[in-house]
Amino acid sequence: MSRLMLSCLMLLAIPAGLLQAQSPKTIPVGKNPESVCRGFDGKLFMTMINDEVPGDGTIVSLEGDTVTVFAKGFNSPKGIVFVGDYLVTADETTLWKVDKDGHATKLAEAKDFPKPIEFLNDVAVAKDGTSVYVSEMSSPQPMFDPNGERKLWDIDGKEAKALPNKGCIYKVTLKGQVTLAVPAGDLSVRFPNGVAVSEVADEEGIFIGDFFAGDIIRYHDGKFVKLASGMRGIDGLTVTKDTFYASSWTQGKVWQVDRKTGEAKVILDGLKTAADFYYDIKNKQLIVPDMVGGTLTFLPIK
Which of 160, 170, 216, 282 has the fewest beta carbons closer than 10 A? Predict the structure, then answer.
């Protein structure tokens, strides 16, 4: 028997389910999905920007391939998390909390922030379990070259040097108390999008993915430290003991970064816009919305 025939027989002997489990599954979910998390009863919930018409944004639930509207009336909902028996989502200049019945109330709005805000984006659960971090990206429009599709200005060009430096991170409790967690002004975090805390219980600091530069930054005790780079367009960010996971909205990629070596490996490519994914550790997968593509990909990880 030839080696080729033997290899084919060995492949056939592997259960089909095992083979399928190693490949990403992708399903259509509708217009402009942005962020996803697990929430009530362990179900998946996702923000849908839809047609970007004020008031037409929704939060949907997913069971299998079935998408059902759970809450509505948002403008452009982005990051979403589940904390303290609420879904919390960032929606332009408003932070909402949504109860188990799909009833949404304003957790914080523009007037509650110490400075003017323009573009609330990603949300992460703080380690206290009673509050969230939310990135105030500031207006993203100046970052983009109008002559290209989702094209950022050259990082060393004159346009980049002239960009504003207003992005920051706020902490908001479930009672609506707002405090500044990461100040604006440092050049390493001009346009913060992804925000995360470490999965390691005693590892302190706030981790930030800067959209324009493509860097992962740790902020702690007033200091900004660059930990990884080369991932322009960072949207979603997760921090584990050994690994960073980061997605790129502009490049349609997801990276796995070794925290010890800094080596970055693309583990998903070919999406139009890889948005704010969910780190589903229980099922060993990343669940990645493709905003422009209108899909959700279930990416197995080790």
Answer: 282
Topology (CATH) of 3-300: Neuraminidase (2.120.10)
Q: Is the CB of residue 271 less than 8 Å from the CB of residue 297?
A: yes
**Residue in this structure with the two tokens 């005790």, named with its chain if needed:** 221
Give the distance, in angstroms, between the CA of residue 155 and the centroid of all CA atoms in the same chain: 22
Residue in 73, 26, 197, 178 with CA at minimum distance from that of residue 115:
178
Which residue in this structure is represented by tokens 């914080």? 108
Distance of CA 234 to the CA centre of its chain: 8
Residue with tokens 């967690």: 181
CA-CA distance, 265 to 241, in Å (whole number)?
17
pTM for the predicted model, two decimal places: 0.91
Residue-wise pLDDT tens digits, 117-148: 999 999 999 999 999 999 999 999 999 999 99
What six digits make up the tokens of 134?
A: 């939310």
